[in-house]
Amino acid sequence: MPPVTPRVSQVRLVVHVEDYDEAVRFYRDVLGMPPEEAYEGEGGAKVMILGAGRATLELSNTAQVELIDEVEVGRRVAPHFRVALEVADAAGVTRAALAGGATLVAEPTRTPWNSLNARLDAPGAVQLTLFEELGA
To answer: How much is the pTM?
Structure first.
């Protein structure tokens, strides 16, 4: 199979949020995602594009989603999509996220693939995994 030339240069996850100001506060101020662009338009339209470091698209079949939920939460809870954010201190960022308005789904848990993963419901109706790679 010949090598594929990548055509995608950026991934943007677009989330419709009912409470725009609360979502901006949480993702920008609590999780520390820096604003890259922001626009306002007619009729009160607003958008803020926040930096999230490197983006990947993770495609998982049903068995994998069930495995991840079992490891992180102990039961199936994942919606159609879940956002996973790599952080340097999963326990500390989880505490900050909870203080900042997220709801705990599962405490930070060490996974079989050697990461520390916490599951949260965050503003904007986004289910988050905060994960810390623990190394070898």
So the answer is: 0.87
